[in-house]
Amino acid sequence: MESLIKSAGDQNFSALITVVISDNELAPGIDLAKNYNVPVEIFDKKKFDKSQFESNAQRVLLNYKIRNNMFGRIYANIIQKLYK
Q: Which domain holds residue 11?
């Protein structure tokens, strides 16, 4: 994640790290994102069912105006892995 965040600062890199969404408040990437001033949203999957987690994450993505189809496919794969 750190490489992506650092690369996103380069004008030649075609991605922007806008927000980090996690289901684990203890994930190492949380502190890393915060150190780079990347907003973090945490939704504990133990407190939400799959549908609620997806709704919350989608709300965050829309708030940050993230609507890229490629990200949508990646996001769908992440959700499937989290809730197997």
A: 2-82
Global pTM value: 0.69
Q: How far apart, in whole angstroms, are the C-alpha atoms of residue 12 and residue 35?
A: 23
CATH number, domain with residue 57? 3.40.50.170
Q: How many domains in the chain?
A: 1
Cα–Cα distances in Å, from 66 out to 3, 26, 31, 70, 82?
20, 25, 22, 11, 21
Over the stretch 17-60, which tens digit does the pLDDT of each residue have? 788 888 888 888 889 889 989 899 888 878 888 788 878 888 88
41 near 19, Cβ under 8 Å?
Answer: yes
Among 70, 72, 29, CA closest to 54: 72
Residue 28 CB-half CA count within 13 A = 2
Query: Hey, what amino acid is at 49?
Result: D
